[in-house]
Amino acid sequence: MTEVLNQLFIGGAWVDAADGATMPVDDPATGEVLCHVADAGPKDARLAEEAAVQAQAEWARTAPRARSEILRRAHELILERTDELAHLMTSEMGKPLAEARGEVAYAAEFFRWFSEEAVRIDGGYGTLPDGRNRMLLSRRPVGPCLLITPWNFPLAMGTRKIGPAIAAGCTMILKPAPQTPLSSLALAGILKEAGLPDGVLNIVTTSRAGEVCEPLLRGGRIRKLSFTGSTGVGRILLAQCADTVVRTSMELGGNAPFIVFDDADLDVAVDGAMVAKMRNMGEACTAANRFFVHRSVAEEFGRRLAERMGALVVGPGTREGVDVGPLIDRTGRGKVEELVADAVERGARVLVGGRTPEGPGCFYPPTVLTDVSPESRLMDTEIFGPVAAILTFDDEDEVLRRANDTPWGLVGYVFTQGLDRGLRVSEGLEVGMVGLNTGLVSNPAAPFGGVKQSGLGREGGRVGIDEFLEYQYVAVPVR
């Protein structure tokens, strides 16, 4: 691994935590400590807030084209450093290098997308219906933002939030997950090199999230929170935002149904299942969680999926030929172990996998379960691991009811060769996104987000920048 940045990034400078605290960053493939990074406390959060607040007015006045060019340069720099960033990401998060390189490209594309959106922020002008006033509409940045990102896509989740904030003219504080701070720190270095002014982006790495974030949200100077993480933490943050009515974007948990009808092309369905389940080792909010397969094709689908899952190579992400890296940590692996054990106790059959390997690291094998009881805990829990749980169904109305029987509504997957059925079921799913005969929905040009307890607002697409902009209406009398 190349030399890494390990300090806080505040006001354009690299600094240690005020109290000198540091925290370890572990390699999930070995359990060994990669390095130590600064562990920010409340004083550091105040300094970052002050830097963002002081930079806001001038940054908001910056020409949209200037903001666009910074994002475009950063996009190019990220791509130039693909291998370096991929190795860094694999070291701290575990995903195989091929997937890490894919995430680097995905992350860079958010900067290119929002570099183009930065110059398309428009308003409006017209006469009001009563004829007495003209209406002048303009859009302006919401103000200093707090961005909180998860560990599973440490680079892309940063660019998906930072990109529209920069394009809109907002300053920000980024708090990355403590398990994966190195990718975010590397990104800060790239943006500084690309010409981002001091104070526009500030990064506080910390193991003391509550001490750092709550005062920022309750203090009144942060005007926007963008959070990606669990629904439980999201509820806590929403409560903290209430006192000062902080604007929020919440991309929360998922419990994605994967529906295979009797007329589905099983080759396409299995290919889709491999993507929807095994992208990022299943550690994704978009991961297929509940596999509802029509009774007439369930046995064949399960056999084919188990064959494909069993052929995957498990090992350190840096090793050539590895398909599946370690889970993020022992806590994450322990959760997967418990969910599988509970399902088996309730009658599920293990077609492949299901046993934790011996040795170092946080590995868990790709696993397929069939005859899963609807009462199993993994039916109403985000698995966040390489486990496919198969249940059967008999008709369309039944599977829609069961698929929607959850407080979450992020994404769903539907496989059928019938266009009418595909559209009908897609429209009937209570989710923000649907993959129809595909296992991949994420794209910087598409709006990402869910309904119900899966979140508020959208990221990416034409609407992604809207989360960082406010409308102002000026009434001008007609004389």
Automatic annotation (TrEMBL):
One of its GO terms (molecular function) is oxidoreductase activity. Residues 14-474 form the Aldehyde dehydrogenase domain. Its EC number is 1.2.1.-. Keywords: Oxidoreductase. SUPFAM superfamilies: ALDH-like (SSF53720). It comes from the Bacteria. The active site is at E251. Pfam families: Aldedh (PF00171). The keyword Acyltransferase does not apply. It is an enzyme of class 1 (oxidoreductase). Belongs to the aldehyde dehydrogenase family. PANTHER family: SUCCINATE-SEMIALDEHYDE DEHYDROGENASE, MITOCHONDRIAL (PTHR43353:SF5). This is NAD-dependent succinate-semialdehyde dehydrogenase. It comes from Streptomyces coeruleorubidus.
